């Protein structure tokens, strides 16, 4: 369980509230709008109305005592910048800030945000890949150009093993798991495991290597 300070209760922030509550985390929610704060109250540990560009108000929250601070302010980038910068100065251990454009993403990184979340861009990339490539069922981007993809077994891999295909050396990829046609997940993938028609693979590697291997 984590203690989370969530600043900004727009649509993105409220969706975070519901998911964090579902996961059992302790959440302090902040917004300048009283109605939004009231809407969040049933799902959080505490909630307050306040302006997070006010340093004194932020100091009263004990920012450094939270495991994570999420700045989810969407429609006032100046406030998001000031808030992100201030909570970092106050010693917040991990700050996650929302961006709504590429420029915002760059600026938030420069002022010290540990992680940038850019929902529109990330969901757009996911949608484009998921629904235009017949062999891709899901994917998750990691850091430094790595990703995990869920892909169908290529026709020329069927009835062959990892050793037969020399996957690590030839493609620089790791097979993390195999999802059977009935949905069962097999994470005990051995070098002698044979691939079959109808299976899906969870593949870890550099995005460029995955796309090249599976001809995306």
TrEMBL record:
<dbReference type="InterPro" id="IPR050721">
    <property type="entry name" value="Trk_Ktr_HKT_K-transport"/>
</dbReference>
<feature type="domain" description="RCK N-terminal">
    <location>
        <begin position="1"/>
        <end position="117"/>
    </location>
</feature>
<dbReference type="GO" id="GO:0008324">
    <property type="term" value="F:monoatomic cation transmembrane transporter activity"/>
</dbReference>
<dbReference type="Pfam" id="PF02080">
    <property type="entry name" value="TrkA_C"/>
</dbReference>
<dbReference type="InterPro" id="IPR036721">
    <property type="entry name" value="RCK_C_sf"/>
</dbReference>
<protein>
    <submittedName>
        <fullName>TrkA family potassium uptake protein</fullName>
    </submittedName>
</protein>
<dbReference type="InterPro" id="IPR036291">
    <property type="entry name" value="NAD(P)-bd_dom_sf"/>
</dbReference>
<dbReference type="InterPro" id="IPR006037">
    <property type="entry name" value="RCK_C"/>
</dbReference>
<feature type="domain" description="RCK C-terminal">
    <location>
        <begin position="134"/>
        <end position="216"/>
    </location>
</feature>
<dbReference type="Pfam" id="PF02254">
    <property type="entry name" value="TrkA_N"/>
</dbReference>
<dbReference type="InterPro" id="IPR003148">
    <property type="entry name" value="RCK_N"/>
</dbReference>
<dbReference type="GO" id="GO:0006813">
    <property type="term" value="P:potassium ion transport"/>
</dbReference>
């Amino acid at each position: 369980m984590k203690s989370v300070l969530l600043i900004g209760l727009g649509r993105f922030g409220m969706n975070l509230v519901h998911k964090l509550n579902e996961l059992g985390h302790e959440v302090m929610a902040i917004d300048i709008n009283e109605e939004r704060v009231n809407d969040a109250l049933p799902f959080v540990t505490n909630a307050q109305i306040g302006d997070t560009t006010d340093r004194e108000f932020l100091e009263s929250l004990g920012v450094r005592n939270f495991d994570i601070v999420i700045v989810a302010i969407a429609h006032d980038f100046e406030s998001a910048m000031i808030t992100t910068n201030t909570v970092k100065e106050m010693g917040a251990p991990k700050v996650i800030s929302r961006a709504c454009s590429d420029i915002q993403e760059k600026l938030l990184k420069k002022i010290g945000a540990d992680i940038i979340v850019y929902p529109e861009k990330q969901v757009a990339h996911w949608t484009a890949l998921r629904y235009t490539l017949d062999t891709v069922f899901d994917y998750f981007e990691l850091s430094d150009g790595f990703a995990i993809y869920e892909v169908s077994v290529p026709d020329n891999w069927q009835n062959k093993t990892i050793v037969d295909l020399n996957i690590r050396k030839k493609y620089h990829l790791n097979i993390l798991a195999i999802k059977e046609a009935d949905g069962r997940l097999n994470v005990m993938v051995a070098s002698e495991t044979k691939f079959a028609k109808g299976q899906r693979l969870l593949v870890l590697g550099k995005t460029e290597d995955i796309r090249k291997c599976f001809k995306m």
